[in-house]
Structures are given as structure tokens and as C-alpha cells.
Amino acid sequence: MTGISVRAARVEDAAIVANFVHALIDELSGGKAPAKQGVFDIAQALLAGADVSAAIAYAGNAPVGVITLNQCAAIYAGGKFGEISELYVRPDMRSQGVAQLLLDHAQQEARARGWARLEVGAPSQPEWHRTLNFYLRNGFDEVGPRLRRLA
């Protein structure tokens, strides 16, 4: 896409990352996102570590999207692998190739870190079918539902 660039996020970008992740949580939860300050604090702490990375998409100087990656490890995966934790594009910039550029960045990061795979959890279906279809078009396979239990 012309005019869109993607760069790795730094700790000092925590506010940008947090604002996008907060918007994602708010959209997926129907307006029930936690306080922005808490999301910022977590983003700042995680971006300072080695196992979580993020990239920001820009249209000119304006941030328009974010992707966060988490390094995981599992025997079934053959060791370390990457997980796309969050991917969000501003609503007015959707269907313009921004998510594709962020995913391309994630694939480059996976290769650089020696990850043999990337995994992602898609939001509930059928409400978010466009999200699922995006990942399927990009070579991801459905392997079943993701479950969680809060501690």
C-alpha cells in the first residue's frame, strides 16, 4: 500500500501501542475495556522486555495500526514460536492493506527470531468472520477454539 510504513515499536511508543490495544479491547468487548492507564502500564512493562514486541503502521506521521507479538514455547511447536497477541487497525483505515503490512512485519520478525510458526487467536465467530477470513487468506489454518480460565 502506498504511503503506509511499518516500524518496530520502542518502549517510548508505549502510549501509541496502548491506545490501539485499548481500542481493540473496547471494540471486542462491546465497550468494556479496562482503564487506559492500566493498559499503558502493561504495554510499557512488556515492551521493555525481550519476549514481547510490537510494530506500528503509519500513514505519513499518523499511527494507524499496531501488531503485538509474544514469544512462546511448546513441545508441539518444536520449541519457540510467535503468537500474534493483538492486531488493530483504525476503523477508517481498514481494508486498505494496513493489516497485511503489519502481518508481513510479523512474518519477518518470526524469521529473524527463528520461529518456525506464528499462531493467532481469532475473535468469536461469526461476528468477526472478516478477521478469521483475513488470517485464512494469509496461510493460517484453523486448529480449533481457544479456551481460557481466569486465575
From TrEMBL:
Residues 4-151 form the N-acetyltransferase domain. Keywords: Acyltransferase, Transferase. InterPro entries: Acyl_CoA_acyltransferase (IPR016181), Bact_Acetyltransf (IPR050832), GNAT_dom (IPR000182). This is N-acetyltransferase domain-containing protein. SUPFAM superfamilies: Acyl-CoA N-acyltransferases (Nat). Transmembrane segments: none annotated. Gene3D superfamilies: 3.40.630.30. Pfam families: Acetyltransf_1. It comes from Pseudophaeobacter arcticus.
